[in-house]
Structures are given as C-alpha cells and as structure tokens.
Design a protein that fits this description.
The protein is mostly helical and 145 residues long. It has one domain. The protein is 74% helix and 0% strand. The protein is built from nine helices and no strands.
C-alpha cells in the first residue's frame, strides 16, 4: 500500500459550492451525498472510505465551529465573522477541523473497523492520514474563501 490510489470527492465539493451559491435543492443533494458516504457501501479503496467519513465530519465541524446549522451562511461568512470566530474558538477553522479529523481517526472502534473491512494494519495507514486530512480541509477552505 505504498502508493495508494488517488481519491477525489468532487461530488461533495460541487454540492458544497451549490449550497454556497444558494441553489435550490442543493442542501438535499449534499445530504444525499453524505448519506451515501456514511453508508460506506461503494467505497473503492481504504482512503476513499476514510475520506468520505472525513467529509461528513468536516460538515459537523463547520457547524460546531460556527455554532449555527445554516451551511449557506457558514460558506458565505465574511472575514470579520471568521476573525471573531478565531478569537471565540481559540483556533482557526483549519486547526479546529484538523483536530476534529485526527480525533475521529484515533477512535479505537474506527481503527478496528478499518482493519476488518480493508484487511490492513494501522501502520500501513498512518503515514497517509495527515495528507488526506490536509486534502479534505484544503477543499473546504477553498470553498469558504
């Protein structure tokens, strides 16, 4: 597993962009995508599986960080709001999401589930997790900014 297959989450990112633009039915589309992601039935690789779960966690993280459940507002928030949230939360959104995803990955039940589903040992995965976390967060930040 030295060179894992590249993964993409274009459907997720495109749905988020549609939510940001206020497109009708975009929130329903995003919810459908996240439901498929959390069901984990059609992931083609270990890192696609983990990344899909991370995408769901990132949405939860955005809602927690902003303290509201209005994703369109979150995705369109102004710099002054973002600056205030850094002070209120004691960290940037990037730091907050990174900690959230690292915490999610480090849950023992999650690790055991991955080992059983994909027949891999954690040592094979660990070196790729930071890059996957960065990739997911960078996509979110690009949309927010």
């Amino acid at each position: 597993m030295k060179n894992p297959k590249p993964v993409e989450f274009n459907d997720f990112y495109n749905a988020l962009k549609e939510v940001k633009r206020g497109k009708e039915q975009s929130m329903n589309r995003l919810k459908e995508i996240l439901l498929v992601y959390t069901q984990r039935k059609d992931s083609e690789s270990l890192f696609e599986d983990i990344g899909r779960l991370f995408c769901n966690e990132v949405i939860d993280g955005l809602i927690s960080y902003y303290g509201i459940n209005e994703l369109e507002y979150i995705l369109n928030s102004e710099k002054s709001i973002k600056d205030y949230l850094i002070k209120r939360n004691g960290s940037s959104i990037i730091e907050f999401l990174k900690q959230k995803l690292e915490g999610y990955y480090n849950k023992e039940e999650f690790k055991k589930d991955l080992e059983e589903k994909w027949k891999v040992d954690q040592t094979e995965i660990l070196e790729n997790i930071p890059g996957l976390i960065e990739y997911i967060i960078d996509g979110i930040i690009e949309i927010i900014n």
